[in-house]
Amino acid sequence: MPQPRYAKSLQPHSGAVIMALYHFLKHPDKLNFDIRMTEPFSRVYRIILEGRTRDELIFRTGKDWPCYSRIYFHSNNTEFRIQHDHSPVKEEFRIEGRKLYMGDLRTESGMRVEFEGEFFQPTTLELKEDFRLPDGRLINDRRYYQVDSAW
User: Which fold has domain 12-146?
Assistant: First the structure.
């Protein structure tokens, strides 16, 4: 059962962007994605690849008030850093095979959030977050994402 949201951690659309990135790395001809977060609530994120350079991808999430997420590549395309246009927070992680690990971000308030994940089949991601609240409680949270469509 998912934990209640006590504090701001990963943006809900961050997992959707990570799922789109993983799918894009496997299928570079796919530039548009409908990614569904299935847990802790159901929501579909429309993600479109807006720009691409040798070491950067720009994904747009949403249409009325879109978020532009810049993804920077490091270490032979296994290390990544996401920078959202609405936040100074950087989300860093590694993807090797079907594992996402060494995920790390510091929130605006300085709280450290560690995250990891596993890609089941080519279209499903389980994302796990761990962080400690100021009162010392450890929070373990899980989110699930799946590719509804890609074109």
Answer: Lipocalin (2.40.128)
Domain ranges of the chain: 12-146
Give yes or no for residue 3 having a pLDDT over 70. Answer: no
The DSSP bridge partners found for residue 144 are 39, 126
Three-state SS sequence of 91-146 = EEEEEECCEEEEEEEECCCCCEEEEEEEEECCCEEEEEEEEECCCCCEEEEEEEEE
> pLDDT at position 9, please?
75
Say if residue 5's pLDDT is above 60: no
113-132 in b/e form (b: 16+ CB < 10 A) is bbbbbebeeebebbbebebe
Q: Beta strand 112-120 with 43-53: parallel, antiparallel or unpaired? A: unpaired
